[in-house]
Specification:
The protein is mostly helical. It has helices at about 5-25, 30-55, 60-85, 90-100, 100-115, 120-140, 150-175, 180-200, 210-240, 240-245, 250-265, 270-285; strands spanning about 140-145, 145. The chain has one domain. It has a two-stranded antiparallel sheet with strand order 1-2. Helix 1 runs antiparallel to helix 9, helix 2 (about 30-55) runs antiparallel to helix 8 and helix 5 (about 100-115) packs across helix 7 (about 150-175). It is globular.
C-alpha cells in the first residue's frame, strides 16, 4: 500500500476503534435507536455538504439506486443498531474485539463471490483460530444459570460483523464505478430514515440528551465515526480491496480495549486478553501472503 493508503488505514482504525467507547457513553442517556438516529443524522448532514462541494455524478440506473439504498440497511442501519444494542450488556472492549472478526467473515464470503479472493489451508487455520477466540469471549458471559443477556449482546455484535463483511464484498463487486461520496451518502441517508421510523414507533416520547458529554459522543460518532470514516472506508475498499480494507479491524482491539479499560474502568480478564489474541492472530494468518 502507498503512504496515502496507510495514512487512511491508520486514521480509520483509530476513529472506528474509539467509536465503541463513545457508543457506551451515549447509551447512558439514549436508546440504541435514538443514538443511531442522531449519529447518522449528523453524518449525512456533513456528507451532504461535502457532496454539494464536490458535485459527484449520481447513478442513473434504478438498479444501482436500489442496491445503494439496500446498503443503507446492510452496511449502516443494521450493523450500527446491532452493535449499539449489544453494548447495552457488553463491555465496549469486548465489542471492539468481536467486531474485529470482520476479515474472517469477509474471507469466507469473498471466496464464493470474488475471483481474486480464494481460500487456502493456512487461511482456514486462521479462521479456526479466530473463531476459537470468539468462542472464548462468549464463554465469559456464560453463567451457571444458563445463557446471560451478555451472550445475546455479543451475538448481536458478531452478526453486525457478518453484515459488514457481506456488504464490503458486494460493494467491491457491484458499486466500483459509483463515486465514493455517493456510496457514502445514499446508504447513510436511507439507513437513517429507516432508523428514525423505528425510533418514532418505539421510543416515544423522543427525548434529547441532557448531558454535554452525550452530545460530544453523538458528534464524534456522526462526524468522525460516520462521515470521515465512511469516506476513508470506501476509498480504501476500491484502492486495496475488501480483505485488506477490513484489516483495519486489527486496530479495533488495541484502541477499543485500551479506551474501555482506561476511560470506563472495564475489567481486563484472561478471557478478554486471550480471546483478543486469538482473534487478531487468526486475522493475521488469514491475510498473510
Amino acid at each position: 500500500m502507498t503512504t496515502r493508503n496507510w495514512s487512511a488505514f491508520l486514521l480509520l482504525g483509530l476513529i472506528w476503534g474509539s467509536s465503541f467507547l463513545w457508543i457506551k457513553i451515549g447509551l447512558r442517556e439514549l436508546t440504541p435507536l435514538t443514538l443511531v438516529g442522531f449519529r447518522l443524522l449528523f453524518g449525512w448532514l456533513a456528507m451532504t455538504i461535502a457532496v454539494a462541494i464536490r458535485r459527484p455524478s449520481f447513478p442513473r440506473s434504478r438498479r444501482t439506486w436500489f442496491w445503494l439504498i439496500l446498503m443503507g440497511v446492510t452496511n449502516t442501519a443494521l450493523p450500527f443498531l446491532l452493535i449499539t444494542w449489544g453494548e447495552q450488556s457488553v463491555d465496549s472492549a469486548v465489542a471492539s474485539v468481536l467486531n474485529s472478526s470482520v476479515p474472517l467473515f469477509t474471507l469466507i464470503i469473498a471466496h464464493f463471490f470474488l475471483t481474486d479472493e480464494n481460500m487456502t489451508l493456512p487461511k482456514v487455520a486462521g479462521l479456526v483460530l479466530g473463531f476459537l477466540g470468539i468462542l472464548l469471549l462468549f464463554s465469559r458471559d456464560l453463567g451457571k444459570g444458563g445463557v446471560t443477556q451478555g451472550v445475546f449482546g455479543q451475538l448481536a455484535v458478531v452478526v453486525a460483523a457478518v453484515s459488514y463483511a457481506a456488504s464490503s464484498v458486494y460493494a467491491r463487486r457491484t458499486l466500483k464505478n459509483v463515486p465514493t461520496f455517493v456510496q457514502a451518502l445514499v446508504p447513510m441517508l436511507s439507513g437513517d430514515l429507516l432508523v428514525w421510523i423505528g425510533a418514532i414507533a418505539v421510543d416515544h416520547p423522543l427525548t434529547l440528551p441532557a448531558q454535554p458529554l452525550t452530545w460530544v459522543a453523538l458528534l464524534w460518532l456522526g462526524l468522525l465515526g460516520s462521515f470521515i470514516a465512511y469516506l476513508l472506508y470506501f476509498y480504501l475498499l476500491h484502492q486495496v480491496g475488501p480483505t485488506r480494507t477490513t484489516l483495519v479491524t486489527y486496530l479495533f482491539p488495541v484502541v477499543g480495549v485500551a479506551a474501555g479499560v482506561i476511560f470506563l474502568g472495564e475489567h481486563l480478564d484472561w478471557h478478554l486478553a486471550l480471546g483478543s489474541m486469538l482473534v487478531v492472530s487468526g486475522i493475521v494468518i488469514v491475510n498473510r501472503r
